[in-house]
Amino acid sequence: MSHDAGITLRQRVKEDIDTAIARDPAARSRFEVFWTYPGLHALWWHRVAHRLWQVNAYFLARVIAMLGRRLTGVEIHPAAHIGRRLFIDHGMGVVIGETAIVGDDVLIFHGVTLGGAKQVDGRRHPIVGDRVLIGAGAKLLGAITIGDGGRIGANAVVLRDVPAGATAVGVPAKVSTNALPADGADDAAMWI
């Protein structure tokens, strides 16, 4: 997971747009992506809220997060840590909780929840490693860890750690470490 030191706002926006174009075959232009992708807008609202949270402006951070949720359909708690090049595709209904940590180059589809399973102090939300794919409607609950390169199938309910490079599917999710085809020819219905 990376740090943002030294990256300008303009560089970050360009990186976000480039990520959307690379990840979404329906993206036609940077102009279209900039103006019409709610997953990107949710990230941008979150970055503002997160900065406010970091300087203890908690109420204002929550107001900004609420506005972002109302405008995008994506709810990201201002305290959540989000890595670079996250792409939230068809973002409606995505929820990312307060102590969640999301790595770099993660792809999240609509209806995903990174939620808490218990009312406890400290970490209660998932840590998602780098290069993870989370299919539509998946629920990752509790202080679990999804290893780098993990894949979570659509509508899976994940309650336990998923090792790096493994795939989790089902309710409750079962983990398989069987490698998927290198050409990406796995069944797309598993993810969206």
List the topology elements.
Blueprint: H1 9-23, H2 30-36, H3 38-54, H4 58-72, E1 75-76, E2 81-82, E3 87-88, E4 95-96, E5 101-102, E6 107-108, E7 113-115, E8 127-128, E9 133-134, E10 139-141, E11 145-146, E12 151-152, E13 157-158, E14 167-169, E15 174-176
Please summarize what this structure is.
The chain is α/β, with parallel strands linked by helices. It has helices at 9-23, 30-36, 38-54, 58-72, and strands spanning 75-76, 81-82, 87-88, 95-96, 101-102, 107-108, 113-115, 127-128, 133-134, 139-141, 145-146, 151-152, 157-158, 167-169, 174-176.
- Number of E-state strands: 15
> Biggest sheet, open or closed, and with what strands and sense?
6 strands, mixed
Radius of gyration: 16 Å
Helix content: 25-40%
Order the strands across the largest sheet as they lie in space. Answer: 3-6-9-12-14-15
Mean of all residue-level pLDDT scores: 90
Summed up, the helix count is 4
Uncertain ranges:
none
Derived from helix and strand composition plus strand pairing, the structural class reads alpha/beta
Strand content: 15-25%
> How far apart, in Å, are the first and last alpha carbons?
25 Å
Q: Would you list the SSEs in sequence order as H and E?
A: HHHHEEEEEEEEEEEEEEE
Identify the overall geometry: globular
Characterize the structure shown:
The two termini are 25 Å apart. The strands form three sheets. The protein has a six-stranded mixed beta sheet with strand order 3-6-9-12-14-15. The model has no long low-confidence stretch (mean pLDDT 90). A hairpin with a 4-residue loop joins β14 and β15 (174-176). Helix content is 28%, strand content 18%. The relative contact order is 0.10. The chain is α/β, with parallel strands linked by helices and 192 residues long.
